[in-house]
Specification:
single chain, about 270 residues, alpha/beta, 11 helices, 7 strands, about 40% helix
Length: about 270
């Protein structure tokens, strides 16, 4: 099954603006794993469920060619509009039907996307297209462990954040729960004997109130809520931003707080 939740032009624009690039810590882990298992050269990386291209652009300096694949033409239009990456090609397609020859891909990645794939069909295609000793890297974050800090009001900020998540819980698709489980079931199903799952990579980064609320707007559950009641959904965002600002004692939505996020990564290498 292919989930079609991110196809609208407005949502694609929000996704491009507010979704963040995976941290360098994850990139280093993935490239080190690839170097250890397969070695140079790094010819072709395929980024599945690439969305607006954040992970594809992160990989671009380290590969001769990167191909980003997504089911949403709206997302791909946003990705193609970012200049300066001549070695990236974006194509419409799915993780379950990869138009690459057998044994042709060095690295197959999916950033916050693998939980939407049809597990058995995706793994069959991954096994087919990866080169011997080619690698799979499926990464994401656990929003259950996000922590916000600003001076002494971190606890109140976290309470607001969790309150909005609980309100949107009835609109959460079941695959999102798979991501929060750090792809444990998918990891077990990977047929390669050489695999590992790194469950807790803590990364601290600054984020403005405006961008945090924009990130929440990009959630699939918020978009489902918005489709049901647009005005109430917009009011929720405005009220959430106001609550953050009031708690922080500031007026500018560009004021930054610190966000700690927990990332995870599933790594596997195809045998010879």
């Amino acid at each position: 099954m292919s989930y079609r939740l991110f196809e609208g032009k407005d949502h694609a624009s929000i996704y491009q603006k507010y979704r963040f690039t995976p941290p360098d810590e994850l990139k280093k882990i993935i490239l080190q794993y690839l170097d250890t298992k397969k070695g140079q050269p790094h010819v072709l990386a395929v980024d599945l469920g690439c969305g607006t291209g954040q992970n594809s652009r992160l990989l671009a300096p380290n590969f001769q060619e990167v191909v980003g694949i997504d089911i949403s033409e709206g997302q791909l239009e946003e990705a193609r509009a970012v200049p300066g990456y001549p070695n990236i090609t974006y194509r419409k397609g799915t993780a379950e039907e990869l138009l690459f020859p057998d044994g042709s891909v060095d690295l197959l990645t999916a950033a916050s996307a693998a939980h939407w794939f049809d597990q058995s069909r995706f793994l069959a295609e991954a096994s087919r297209v990866l080169k011997p000793r080619g690698c799979m890297a499926l990464l994401g974050f656990s929003d259950n462990n996000t922590r916000l800090r600003y001076q002494t009001c971190g606890e109140k900020l976290n309470h607001i954040y969790e309150e909005v998540k609980q309100m949107l819980l009835p609109y959460t698709s079941s695959p999102v729960g798979v991501a929060e489980g750090k792809l444990e079931e998918l990891y077990r199903a990977i047929p390669f004997p050489d695999k590992e799952r790194i469950e807790c990579i803590l990364v601290n980064s600054p984020i403005s109130v405006r961008n945090l609320v924009g990130f929440m707007e990009s959630w699939s559950m918020f978009q489902a809520y918005y489709k049901k009641d647009p005005q109430t959904a917009e009011d929720l965002l405005l009220n959430t931003q106001k609550r953050f600002l009031d708690v922080m004692g500031v007026t500018s939505p560009d004021t930054e707080m610190e966000r700690q996020m927990e990332y995870f990564c599933v790594l596997a290498s195809k045998p010879l």
